[in-house]
Amino acid sequence: MSFLEMAMLIGFGVSWPFSIYRSYKKKSVKGKSIIFLFCILIGYFAGILHKFLYSYDWVLFFYLLNFSMVFTDIVLYFKYENNG
């Protein structure tokens, strides 16, 4: 079990719903960096690959959850990039 890894992912993952909600409600992505979002997405993707290839356990769920939230934030970024 990877308790500390899970705690890190939960800690990072707590902020994504707020970021998504803000973009969705304000219809603006002012102040967001698409490069930063893609760097985070690549990091989560690397963690997912590592879990599949070397250390498969239930912590994979948190990587997938965080990946999906960052991906959603990226979709909203492209949807609202000209609004703001």
Which features characterize this protein?
84 residues; mainly alpha; 4 helices; 76% helix
Number of strands: 0
Taking all residues together, what is the mean pLDDT?
94
Strand percentage: under 5%
Major beta sheet summary: none
Please provide a written account of the structure.
- The protein is an all-alpha fold.
- It has a domain at 28-84.
- The chain has helices at 3-13, 15-26, 34-53, 60-80.
- It is elongated, with a radius of gyration of 14 Å.
- The termini are far apart.
Tell me briefly what this model is.
With 84 residues, this protein is an all-alpha fold. It has helices at residues 3-13, 15-26, 34-53, 60-80.
List the helices and strands and how they pair.
Blueprint: H1 3-13, H2 15-26, H3 34-53, H4 60-80
Helix pairs in contact: 1-4, 2-4, 3-4
